[in-house]
Design a protein that fits this description.
This protein is α+β, with helices and mostly antiparallel strands. The protein has a single domain, classed as Histidine kinase-like ATPase, C-terminal domain (Heat Shock Protein 90, 2-Layer Sandwich), CATH 3.30.565. Helix content is 31%, strand content 27%. It contains 3 helices and 5 strands; from the N terminus they run E-H-H-E-E-H-E-E. The chain has a 5-stranded antiparallel beta sheet with strand order 1-2-3-5-4. The chain is globular and about 40 Å long. The model has no long low-confidence stretch (mean pLDDT 85).
Amino acid sequence: MKSQISTPRFTPFAPLRFTQLLSATPRGARLARLLATQQLTEWGWPASCTASESAALVVAELAANAVTHGRVRGRCFRLSLAVDAPDTLRVEVADPRGDRPPRPRTAAVADLTAESGRGLLLVDALATRWGSVPYPPSGKTVWACLPLP
């Protein structure tokens, strides 16, 4: 009788994607953060891990900016999460205002006593790279790539 030697099957990486339209309100921005945390938990990164905490902060900042600076009455913003590679999470927030590309303030210019103005500095510190692209016909998508363990 021959013994059977099993070889592990090659399983290609399956990309993970999540997209949701949300109201351009503070409540919609809060919901974006909660949905991102919930989705990452379903994908295997619990809310208490560094990757999930970083993603929650980046989503919160980008969603708050979309609601504050990218809002057009009657239009929503879109949250998208994607794991296209096993070690990178891509966060995207699209809003209908393309005339206001994001511009981070430098640490020297940011007023340390101000209640706002440092969100993109936080995104820059947590993301391996980030930027924005036009979102036709008139909006923009701000994206950030975060490392995954």
